[in-house]
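Typical record was shown:
=====
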Amino acid sequence: MKVKYLALIGVAALLVFTGCPRPAENRLVVWSFTDEIENMIIMHNVGEALGMEIAYSLTPTDQFPDRLSPALMAGGAVAPDVFALESAFVRQFIEYGPDLLLDLTDLYNEVRGRVLRYPVEVASVGGRVFGMSWQATPGAMFFRRSLAIRYLGTDDPAVVQQYFANWNTFLGTARSISEQSEGGTVVVSSLGDLNFPFLASRAQPWVVNGRLHIDPMMVEYLHMVRYLRDNGFEGRVGQWSEGWFAGMRGDLADEAGNPVGVFAYFLPTWGLHFVLAQNAPLTSGDWAMIPGPASWFWGGTWLAAYAGTRHPEAAREFIRLLTLDETNLERWARETGDFLNHMDVVNRIVDDFSLPFLGGQNHYAAFLEPARGIDGGLIQGTDQAIQALFLEAVEQYANAEATMEAALAMFREQVAAQLGIN
């Protein structure tokens, strides 16, 4: 397959993938924020398979929604035929349904019952499916084997899971670790690690019947972060800060310079490969993973198509080749280690993985249990904005800068003022 660099359009890099030159009317325009799509186009020879030229455009994630939204609204030749959607903004577009998006229910029906439930739920409206994903991004709890042996007497994941099976046992184990280490080891380095697990533990989403709903689990989250902070069971650093990464390496220290051990991190599939393993090479082999207290996910990419595309069948086939074709998926998983959404392929390859970083543990198999328990119906288009405001309330309450009642009142007022949701 020939890959020809065409131009830079603002911040969007445009590439054309083609087997041979083709007229513009035989061109499928694909927009993305991740180079995964580009790599799949090349690996799977998608241009050749479709008999079309693929005009692929890459835009940075933080700028992608602002580029995509007006293009779809304008329609016509301005809109891309196929585009990627990230978990942070996927519902903002999916909720338009057939007004903007091509119905992909027929693709889903080909694999109904053979793919994980939650990615389909995230991309569905009114019982119809408008996006498909090749992957799932379940989260897990990654713990230091040496610390588990020291404080729990074992590093066997099945036994360690019993100490963190729910949030009550999580708290009890956090206290035990702190007491045994005389405050020298914390259960997590950052309170932010608990955000997605608690969000996934809710019974209802943020907006119910048009009104703001604060699920009881989010109140429990507030209790949890304050308890961990007040008792010194967490490392008092923010996610993505230098202290957060230092804890992975075993280099975290408190304000007095005393070393602080970090027992565990909550991370998704990509967090294992691209965050933990990359930032903690010297602790390789001293990690293992368990489901932890909740099933949750963080991140992920979906593919959708513009409802007015001139090439609806080619758009569907493009999405099928990247998200459903079993030969392509197996090749992709073996090349990248990406955790797949297609259970037939997962079951075929799941026993073939062993990760030295996890002391030889099969991470692929370990992700299966939490992946099956995720509820994709909790995700809404307003989530990103609402959760950002809620985290401000969390920070205030954790730092004892406001009572719980005051923090929640501030949260409600901000949601009403900024989003018009009461």
Q: What stands out?
A: DSSP finds 19 helices and 14 strands in the chain. Residues 1-12, 19-23 have pLDDT under 50 and may be disordered.
